[in-house]
Amino acid sequence: RFLAGALSPLFFGSAINNFGLEAFLESFCELMPPPRPRDSDQGPIAPTQEEFSGFVFKIQANMDRAHRDRVAFVRICSGRMSRGMKVHHVRTGRDVRLANPTQFLARERSVVEDGFAGDVVGIHDPGTFEIGDTLTGGSRFEFEGIPSFAPEHFARLALVDPLRRKQFSRGIEQLAQEGTVQLYRPPAG
């Protein structure tokens, strides 16, 4: 019933007291299903496929308070990713080097040398990635995107301080790129 999505296990424990953590982690490893095929415009891509493929499912900005940065979170869907490898960014048609793929654990970051199907890695994003992008080892297929729903709440944003226009625009644009908000502009402006 868990694999069918009809049941969710519930664990009790305390990280502070180190109570129940080992049982949770062991059960988690046993219960989690292996990576599944992901649908693309050329049919399902199996996780056992040799060629690397990945899907950008989240963009996060300003994760490091010391400087402004953007991280694109990529789920590896097939093949093997290694640090420094070149991958093809399908939407832009350009090749991108994965210089320092990163894994996050709370506030700690660690560079990932190798990643396999099912892993999630963070990639430094200079502003080229968008949610739903496909990265491949050279093929030209695209994964199905994440659905976009009609908004339920609307708000009109107004600039209070005209001297902060650039920061205001940049902040709103970042929120839209992260998928937090949908941005609508009047047709004339």
Summary tags:
189 residues, alpha+beta, six-stranded antiparallel sheet, 12 strands
Secondary structure elements and their pairing?
Blueprint: H1 21-31, E1 38-40, E2 43-45, E3 53-61, E4 70-78, E5 80-82, E6 86-89, E7 94-97, E8 102-105, E9 108-111, E10 114-116, E11 120-124, E12 134-136, H2 165-178
Antiparallel strand pairs: 1-2, 3-4, 3-12, 4-11, 5-10, 6-7, 6-12, 8-9
Describe the structure.
It is a single chain. Helix content is 13%, strand content 29%. It has two helices and twelve strands, in the order H-E-E-E-E-E-E-E-E-E-E-E-E-H. The chain is globular. The mean pLDDT is 88.
Mean pLDDT: 88
Q: Main beta sheet, described?
A: 6 strands, antiparallel
Low-confidence stretches: none
Give the count of helical stretches: 2
Task: Describe what is shown at a glance.
This protein has 189 residues and is of the alpha+beta class. The chain has helices at residues 21-31, 165-178, and strands at 38-40, 43-45, 53-61, 70-78, 80-82, 86-89, 94-97, 102-105, 108-111, 114-116, 120-124, 134-136. A hairpin with a 2-residue loop joins strand 1 and strand 2 (43-45).
